[in-house]
Amino acid sequence: MALSPRRGARAPLATLSAELVGRWRAMSGRERRLVLLAAGFVAVALAWLVLLRPALRTEARAPQRIAQLQAQLALARSQADELARLAAQAPVHAQAADLGAAATRWLRAHGAQAQAASLPGSVTLQVQHLPASELAEFARTARQEWAAQVASAKLRLDGGTDATSLSGSLELQSRQADSGNGGDTSPGQAP
């Protein structure tokens, strides 16, 4: 005769429960106190390991992590302000050879990995590990030396707790084609 799954599942549990109750009743008062003391110690140890210790560790590390994130936010805001200021300036027309090659060389010289995809008048750069402190300098160099501007930047901080480098894409637009549209040209220069 086959047992149904419910009865089969309850039978071992009921047997175990009955055995434990029988053992408990057979213990002396001193043994019962020792078992309760051991169970209490195990419960306190589990509460410490599972609940309290991780919470206390997180609380201890939180101020340092908050300060670190605030410093990163301040750096990002200052670089955004610098990029906005550079974008508002009139372009400087310098002699620039291939914009993609020049930008790639500059990024590699400053510790980043870069690949360029060029279109007429613009270059899209895939950048990895660009030091965050070099982003504003890159935008300044693009404007002053290559007559280009950063049209868009889709960057993220590289992983890790003390991430100070950026990865993503940058798009540069050549400003030489805009020289007739309000760009700075001195009287001695051709437009």
Structure report:
The structure is a single chain. The protein is of the alpha+beta class and 191 residues long. The chain has a domain at 66-178. Helices cover 55% and strands 19% of the residues. The protein has 4 helices and 4 strands; from the N terminus they run αααββαββ. It has a 4-stranded antiparallel β-sheet with strand order 1-2-4-3. A hairpin with a 2-residue loop joins strand 1 (113-119) and strand 2. The longest helix has 60 residues, at 29-88. Mean pLDDT is 80; it is low at 93-97 and 177-191.
Shape: rod-shaped
Structural class: alpha+beta
Q: What is Rg? A: 34 Å
Give, in spatial order, the strands making up the sheet with the most strands: 1-2-4-3
Mean pLDDT: 80
State the separation between the terminal residues, measured CA to CA.
100 Å
Proportion of beta-strand residues: 15-25%
Tally of individual helices:
4
* Low-confidence region ranges: 93-97, 177-191
> What's the number of extended β-strand segments?
4
- Main sheet record: 4 strands, antiparallel
Proportion in helices: 40-55%
Order of helices and strands: HHHEEHEE
